[in-house]
Write a structure and sequence with these properties.
The chain is mainly alpha-helical. The chain folds into two domains: 68 residues, no CATH class; 44 residues. It has five helices and two strands. The longest helix has 28 residues. The radius of gyration is 31 Å and the shape is elongated. The two termini are 46 Å apart. This is Lipopolysaccharide assembly protein LapA domain-containing protein. Pfam families: LapA_dom. InterPro entries: LapA_dom. Keywords: Cell membrane, Coiled coil, Membrane, Transmembrane, Transmembrane helix. It comes from Sulfitobacter aestuarii.
Length: 116
């Protein structure tokens, strides 16, 4: 199974390298549209190779997806934490009740009661 994972990673890396080699042309990347940049008296424009733009877009999409999923699962994590707190509280209560039930009894009788 580990080798299959390595093969998949290698294929993915080769695909990324081939995309990078095929898209080496430098392109202008504007941060704001021309009309909007006139309002603020700035024209932010960066010249980057196209493969960097493509890979950065993929990375930004993955990041947004991870954050979106983390926010979506917040309710499930909160419910799991609440159930864990409730379970610990009930375990403490059971231990306390067992201690009260066997209080003042002989140790051998307590052991026999617990096994039955």
């Amino acid at each position: 199974m580990r080798y299959i994972r390595y093969i998949c990673i290698a294929i993915f890396a080769l695909a990324l390298i081939s995309v990078a080699l095929a898209n080496r042309a430098v392109v202008p990347l504007k941060i704001l549209p021309t009309e909007v940049s006139g309002w603020f008296a700035l024209n932010p424009q960066i010249e980057l190779p196209l493969f960097i733009v493509i890979l950065a877009s993929l990375l930004a999409g993955l990041l947004v997806g991870f954050v979106w999923e983390w926010i979506r699962e917040h309710g499930e994590r909160a419910e799991k934490a609440r159930l864990a707190r409730e379970r610990r509280r009930l375990e403490r209560e059971v231990a306390r009740l067992r201690g009260e039930k066997h209080q003042g009894k002989d140790d051998v009788l307590v052991l026999l009661d617990e096994t039955a």
